[in-house]
Amino acid sequence: MGYYSTFELEIRHLHSGDVVVESLSEKIIEKFRSENEFAEYCLRPNGLSDGESKWYESEDDLRDLSKGYPELLFVLLGLGEDHERWVTYANNGKSYTEDAKIKITYPKFSIDKL
Fold first, then answer.
1. Residue 50 sits in which domain range?
2. How far apart are CA 75 and CA 53, in angstroms?
3. How far apart are CA 92 and CA 98, in angstroms?
4. 76: which of 37, 67, 104, 114 is 20 to 30 A away, CA to CA?
5. How many Å apart are CA 53 and CA 41, to the nearest integer?
6. Counted domains in the chain
7. Residue 87 contacts residue 98 (beta carbons within 8 Å)
């Protein structure tokens, strides 16, 4: 048994928030995947999910990865089997996780659409 989730990893510049160029991002993720069996199983080289998996130590692993890149922000998006969503942020050996706040809005009624 266990809790299955899907994961997506983005790498951003810490101060600007801009996404790191794809070639650098893929190089970092590929290195991460080669050193961490869970990252290898859970992530593709581009950081997208490789299907449902169990990765209970994802925050610890991301925190460790971030120590080697203090100028970058690692953003791991998670989606659980019960549709729970969360995000983990890691930079320079520090991290935190927060649940997603989802707001559903419906468009106003329009008589013209009838």
1. 5-113
2. 18
3. 18
4. 104
5. 8
6. 1
7. yes
Task: Output the DSSP codes for 28-42.
Answer: HHHHHHHH-HHHHHH
Question: How are strands ordered across the β-sheet holding 72-80?
Answer: 5-13, 72-80, 85-91, 94-99
**The pTM is what?**
0.85
Q: How far apart are CA 49 and CA 74, in angstroms?
A: 15
Q: Which residue has the tokens 């999910």?
A: 49
Q: How far apart are CA 49 and CA 9, in angstroms?
A: 8
Q: What's the pLDDT tens digit per position in 5-62?
A: 999 999 999 999 999 998 999 999 999 999 999 999 889 989 989 889 899 999 999 9
d(CA 111, CA 102): 28
Name the 3-class secondary structure at 27: helix
Q: Please give the structure tokens belonging to residue 60.
A: 């610890």
Residue 74: other Cβ atoms inside 10 A: 24
- Tell me the residue type at 51: G
**Tell me, what's the pLDDT at 1?**
67
